[in-house]
Amino acid sequence: MNVLITGASSGIGFETAINLLKQDHVVIAIARSSGKLDGLKQAVSCQAASSRLHTFPFDIADGDYSASLIPFVLERFEKVDILINNAGLLVNKPFPVTRQQEFMDLFRVNVIGHVNMIQAVLPYFNTGAHILNIGSMGGFQGSVKFPGLAAYSSSKAALHALTECLAYELAEQHIKVNCLALGSAQTEMLKAAFPGYKSPVSAEEMGRFIADFALNGHRLFNGKILPVAVTTP
Ligand SMILES: NC(=O)c1ccc[n+]([C@@H]2O[C@H](COP(=O)([O-])OP(=O)(O)OC[C@H]3O[C@@H](n4cnc5c(N)ncnc54)[C@H](OP(=O)(O)O)[C@@H]3O)[C@@H](O)[C@H]2O)c1
Questions:
Q1: Using CA of residue 222, residue 156, residue 205, residue 33, what is the dihedral sign?
Q2: Would the pTM of this model clear 0.90, i.e. be above it?
Q3: pLDDT in tens, 6-33
Q4: How far is the CA of 172 from the centre of ligand 1 (A)?
Q5: Which residues contact 105 (CB under 8 A, 6 or more apart)?
Q6: Quick check: 88 and 134 in contact, CB under 8 A?
Q7: Strands across the sheet with 2-6, in order?
Q8: 137 CB contacts (<8 Å, ≥6 apart)?
Q9: Whether residue 86 has its Cβ less than 6 Å from ligand 1
Q10: How far is residue 152's CA from residue 158's CA, in Å, rounded to a whole number?
């Protein structure tokens, strides 16, 4: 399978990319930091065939898709089988002092960045492709909410709704769209959201689950927002 994954320079995306490469899939790994993407290359060279990994430093919110990312993708992939929209930003700040700019920054990455990516890749999906968005329990309707995460959680709720809309709108193109609303996994972002909290789920374990769901979940699910949480948070 040809897989495009964003936010692959650290945490869950990093581990998801490694797991896919271990299964011999071809991966284009995207994040802003080229240094951290080099770290992914190094990690892969010890565990899987690094020739199947292509890294591309790119900002999903601000990058030039038509002049930069898409030519890179088309040189490596005839078609895209799986797009994992995993990149994310978090601000942990009480709502009364969260600036409008901080809200906008989160929505630009956590929603518009994924919109940009999906629109740019749309002409190049294979029949039966899977778009997997990485949401959050924070944005899951009726879930327990935590102070300080209003901007983050509301941006994830928008991504959840986008998933449901696109599952219908892209059905004619035979593209399935799902979203995993993650609980917690031990990453830098979790530390920022819940300082001092230790998740029982490692980034590696979550990455393994996401890789498996990205490869197989669309056989049985479409337009679903699935909670992936054993604890709260
Ligand atoms: N960890 C959890 O407990 C948890 C819970 C619920 C949901 N999630 C979701 O899971 C996903 C992965 O989170 P994580 O915990 O692994 O966090 P993380 O380690 O902070 O990873 C976030 C990734 O997103 C990338 N990124 C951020 N802004 C970007 C941009 N504008 N363009 C391209 N890449 C960008 C970062 O790379 P660069 O900085 O190099 O760009 C990094 O690779 C996120 O969507 C997050 O909201 C995580």
A1: positive
A2: yes
A3: 999 999 999 999 999 999 999 999 999 9
A4: 31
A5: 89, 91
A6: yes
A7: 53-57, 26-31, 2-6, 80-85, 125-136, 176-182, 225-228
A8: 143, 144, 181, 182, 183, 227, 229, 232, 233
A9: yes
A10: 10
